[in-house]
Every structure is written in structure tokens, then in C-alpha cells.
Amino acid sequence: MANVLIDGPGLHVGTEQTADHAYLRFHGRNYDIWYREEKEDDHRLDRYDYLYKRDQLEPWVPQIKEAELKKSKVRTYFNNHARAKSVRNAFLLMVMLLIEHKQKEIKLQDQFTLGEF
Fold first, then answer.
1. What is the pLDDT, as a whole number, of residue 90?
2. Separation CA 62–CA 70 (nearest Å)
3. Which CATH architecture fits 4-116?
4. pLDDT per residue as tens digits for the range 64-88
5. What is the pTM (predicted TM-score) of this model?
6. What is the Cα–Cα distance from 22 to 7, expressed in whole angstroms?
7. Whole-angstrom Cα distance, residue 49 to residue 80?
8. Sign of torsion, CA 88 94 97 101?
9. Among 29, 33, 25, which residue's Cα sits nearest to residue 5?
10. DSSP assignment, residue 41?
């Protein structure tokens, strides 16, 4: 069983590898939504509606590279899925890690609440 390395609001970020593979999860950093009651006028109703900036992912690059050297597999999961932000961040991290992939422009999707229909 692998210890999950987490990036999220107020979540403990462990660094200890406990298996022959590594698993990382990125949940976004919307502290206000995770730990306070949601306001009706707040259109970021999804706690995972968060877009990581390059400088926020940068500290993870050496950790991921180190895990790649020690482990058979490194799995990274972006759970900041609202409005296609996880896809955009996954491509950004692949660029930062020099992982080859097809280039694709990721347009952030409009998000609506039920009250807007």
C-alpha cells in the first residue's frame, strides 16, 4: 500500500514513500470553500474549482523526479476537475517534467449553477 502524497488545503503533505510505487493527489487550494460554509453568491461552489499556477507545482517536480528514480511507477492525479482545470494542470506538469505528449490547448469550460438555468 502506498502512502498518498497530497497537495490540498490544510491537508498534511507527507513525503515518506511506503511502497514500490508512488501516488500523488492534487486537490486545489480553496481553503475558504473547504473549511467554511459556502455562500449562496459564491459561484465557486465546487471545492475543487482551482487552477494551480506553475510556481505552486514547481516544488513537486524534484519530489516526483526523486520518486521516479526509486519507484517502479509514479501516479499523479489532479482532482481539481472543475471547468477542465485538472487537464490543464496535468499538461503543465508534464511540460515541467519533460514528459512528451501531444500539444493541446485546454480551454476552461464555463460552469453554471442550477439556479442559472
1. 92
2. 12
3. Alpha-Beta Barrel (3.20)
4. 998 888 777 889 999 988 778 888 8
5. 0.77
6. 14
7. 6
8. negative
9. 25
10. T
